[in-house]
Amino acid sequence: MDFINRQNKYVVYALGALALCILPLLLQYAGNFWVRIADIALLYVLLALGLNIVVGYAGLLDLGYVAFFAIGAYMYGLMASPHLSENFPWFARMFPQGLHTSVWMIIPMAAALAGIFGILLGAPTLKLRGDYLAIVTLGFGEIIRVFLNNLDHPVNLTNGPKGLGQIDAITLFKFDWLGIPGINLGKRHEVFGFDISAVTNYYYLFLVLVVLSVIICHRLELSRIGRAWMAIREDEIAAKAMGINTRNMKLLAFGMGATFGGISGSMFAAFQGFVSPESFSLTESIMIVAMVVLGGIGHLPGVILGAVLLSSLPEVLRWVSGIFDLQAISGGRLDPAILRQLLIALAMIIVMLLRPRGIWPTPEHGKSLQQQPASK
User: Fold this and answer.
1) How do residues 282-309 score in pLDDT, each as one tens digit?
2) Measured between alpha carbons, how far is 54 from 320 in angstroms, rounded to an integer?
3) I want to staple 77 with a disulfide (CB 3.0 to 4.6 A). Which of 11, 101, 145, 164 is the partner?
C-alpha cells in the first residue's frame, strides 16, 4: 500500500469511509440480495477479527471458535423471543407476551457469557499447542453444537434441531417511559427521500461494530498485552523467561476472542430472526479459520480481506451459476453447489501455494523463524 503515506492517508481514509457509506445505497438498486451479501461479509469480518486475537496474536490454534458464535446467537434468541414463555408456564405467568429484552442488555450479556466460556475452554488447554490444541478446541465446538441440538428434552431450552424462531429485530433508541418507539432495523424506513430497506439498516449497524472492533484490535496490537501475546506466539519459553505470565495472557486471549464471537452471534440472530444448530457446524468453524489464514495471520487488513473474500465469493458464484444456468447447460451432470465449493477450494490452494503466509501478511509474523542461526 505504497500510495498511502503520511500526507494523503487521511484523504484515503475519508474516501474509503464515504465509499463504505454509499455502498449499500448503490447495491439496493441491483437488489437486496447484494446488500445481504455485504451484511454477511461484515458479520464474518467481526468473527475473523475475534479469532485473529486468539490465532493471529497469541498463536493458539482454535478450531472451535464457532461455539462462541452459537452461544451469542442462542443468548439473543432466548432473551428476545417468546420461546421461554411458550414452554415454561411459570415463566409465562411473569412474562405473558414473552421475553423481549432490550438489545442494550442482551449484547453485554452475550459477550460476557461467551467470554466466560472462552476462559473455561482455555483453562484446561494451557499446556497444549499446535495439533493437540486444535483437536481439543474442535471437540469443544462440537460439544456445544450437540448440546444445542439435544436440549429440547426433557426440558425444552433450545427447541432442538427445530431452532428458535420469532426472534425480535434490533430496535435502537427506544424509550418506553418517554413514549419514544425507537428505530426498528427490521423495517423499511425513508430518510431524506431515500428508501432504506431492512438489510441496509443492518449494514450500517454492522459497519459501526466492525469499525469499533478494528480500533479495539489495533489498540490491543500496540499495547503491552498485544506484545506479550506476540512474544508467546513466537516463542513461549522465551516469553516465560522474560517474565510474561503466559497462563493469564492465554486466558485473556481466549476470553477476548470469544467476546467478539458472542457479539457476532447475537447480531446474527437478530438479523436472521431464526437460529438453529445447523448454522454452527464444523464447516463454519473451519471457514472462519480459513479466512484468518488466507488473509494473513495477525494482520488486520489481511484478516478483513480474507473474511470478505471467503464470505462473498460463494454467493457471487451462486449468482453466476444461476445466470448461466450451468446445470441446464451440462444436462444436469454439473451441480452448481459442488462446482462452487470446487472453485473455492482451488482458489485457496492456488493462493496458499503462491503466498503461503496469506494474501496480505504482516511483516512481523514468523520473524523468529526467519532468523538464521549464528555462525560459529
Assistant:
1) 888 888 988 998 888 888 999 999 999 9
2) 35
3) 164
| Contact of 60 with 308, CB cutoff 8 Å | no
260 versus 192: the higher-pLDDT residue is 260
Residue 188: other Cβ atoms inside 10 A: 12
d(CA 84, CA 352) in angstroms, rounded, equals 47
Partner residues linked to 164 by β-bridges: 275
Could you tell me if 54 and 48 are in contact, meaning their C-beta atoms sit under 8 angstroms apart? no
Confidence of residue 376 (pLDDT cuts 50, 70, 90): very low
Q: What is the CA angle 43-45-50, rounded to 5? A: 100
Task: Please list, in sequence order, all residues whose beta carbon lies within 8 angstroms of the beta carbon of residue 195, skipping any fewer than 6 positions away.
Answer: 28, 188
User: 3-state DSSP call for residue 270?
Assistant: helix
Instruction: Evaluate whether 24 touches 35 at the Cβ level (below 8 Å).
Output: yes
Amino acid at position 367, single letter? K
CB atoms within 10 A of CB 35: 23
One-letter identity of residue 37 = I
